[in-house]
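Example record

Each entry pairs one chain with its bound ligand, pantoate.
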Amino acid sequence: MRELERNRDAPASTEASSELGRLAVIGNGRVGGSLAHAARAAGLEVRVGGRGQVLEAVRGSDIVLICVPDRAIADVSREIAQAIDVTTYVGHVSGASGLDVLRPAMERGAPTFSLHPLQTIPEPTTTLLGVPAAVAGSTPAATRIATTLAERLGLRPFEVPDDQRAAYHAAAVLASNFLIALEETAADLLTRAGVEDARAVLTPLVLRTAANWSDTGRAALTGPIARGDETTVARHRAALRAMAPEFEPLYDALAERTRALATLNRSQPHVEGGTQVSTPRIVRTREELRAALAPARGEGRTIGLVPTMGFLHEGHLSLIQAARERCDVVVMSLFVNPTQFGPREDLAAYPRDEASDVTLAGEAGADLVYAPDTGHVYPPDFATVVEVGGGLTDVLCGDPARRGSAHFRGVTTVVAKLLNAVGPDVAFFGQKDAQQAIIVRRMARDLEFPVEIVVLPTVREPDGLAMSSRNVYLQPDERVRARGLNRALAAVSDAARSGETSTARALALGEKVLADAGIVPEYLEARDAETLAEVERFDDRRVLVAVAARIGSARLIDNVLIDLSHGEDPA
Ligand code: PAF
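Structure tokens for the complex follow.
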């Protein structure tokens, strides 16, 4: 031990670790007994003293380990302070106490430490081999002594800073004591439900679950919440309310934490030997949505929103994938918004396939699908609209002879509501609906929504047709003709890039392509890509060339962005 004295601030050498010196264990209860037993087995010289023999045990010792109940540690520390010198290391084995309880010894100049075996110790002969032990020290040398002693006793030491002691102990209580409380609650409920010997019935499930958790962590989570099955959760709560209402708050609190873990599993799946694809959770109300997002928001994680009307195609999936790459949590909204359909547009016939949408969204990386009912978004007394002016909504598709500005009023109203409901950091839109993206961006800016609007390139079929949910309406011959839209846009942009400065002349080339394909456009126009003002010349501003046409029963739109200062943007 005198070796240690010389090397007080040096790393504990092999020599030092094999020469810990004389150990005094104060307290001969279960913990003291087990530690003294382990110390003797390790070949250490050990003296054990009960409360009446403290001074006798301590005198001449190099290390004193106080193994008495928490409330008595300070008294023992005070008592031994008279019998130790500055070379004696004084430690305790309490989980909840910090080093401050050893203050009398510390004031005497002794370095102090704590060494807490993280294990229930039912008997004074409990084997501690391989048990993790939290160590802390008042000096680096004291920490090293605690570590070395723990290793010699066969424990597995890990450091816990003394100022994190309460958090450490709370974690230990959650993992151990609360587990008992939880299992007792489950057994009580099962007994009330008429099952005999509930503990025996539950034991295999508890042991297997603990083993799975030990192997794979949160990936071991199964059950209705992990599957996003809130209907079953609601049935559980109803049963609890009827049978054991006192357990409902506990169930709710654990359900909330489980939802957060399930969301985490979806956003950062545990992958072992393959790709894991998970089903996103479906939420139907803004309350459910907010509750589902609260943990992520509380942890400061980024939330991405992809608003859709469903019937997903590659274009939507590219938005979800981009959101997945950019954000911690990805929400896809799935709502066929009636207020953006005109009286002559068939809302009822809009294609829908929720089950497939949810699967595809999950594969693309969505964590949550927000799919509210119409009545939830627009209750009977709903009386507010969000309308963007500035000449953005009454041109192109917003022209009164086409869909009209009411269409965009419907879009901005619902997008504002979605942004409020989800509260995303980033919202993703497709460039295919270029005018919509420009209008939404202006609305977000003007109304100061704290969200970044990201607009991503149009996804196209191999022959250039822009992907759209409405393409399903095309008959085979119409599908072939529909290629004309993209070709017409290409003709206009080729002309501009080849030096044609007149938008009218370039558009005329596009109109010819449309005519050759048998397409009568609603419009083919060149407009400023930000203000949507008409442009007569291609110069160094960004120009949006947009087309809309009815082909068979499908109304299709497409566009290209021409930026001669930077080359053409992919659209
Ligand atoms: O682009 C769409 O699918 C819709 O207009 C949107 C943005 C989801 C609003 O209903």
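The chain has a mean pLDDT of 90.
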